[in-house]
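Sharing a chain and its predicted structure for anyone who wants a worked example. Both blocks are below, sequence first, tokens second.
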Amino acid sequence: MPKTNFKAIISKIIVFYSVFYVVMKLIAILFDDVWVLPNLILALPFLLFAIIGGLLIKKESFSWIFVITGVLVISAIRYYEAEWVVALHEYFT
């Protein structure tokens, strides 16, 4: 039975999701009428996960810390995203 490397699989999912999220935010900013600054701020952690994860994939060294942090941060941002966008918009205006 082949050994499955769950760290690698979940890390790649985090990287692909992060890239997808950043691209979708940029498309929304460019082509929709969304608030620019709050959406860019919320996209920064995803950009960071995409960069770090890309480096991990390139080196083929995966970490449980990256996986756990990625899952927790992505889940928290997605859960509170609507509230945080409004709060950030009100803060910067």
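Comments welcome. The mean pLDDT is 93.
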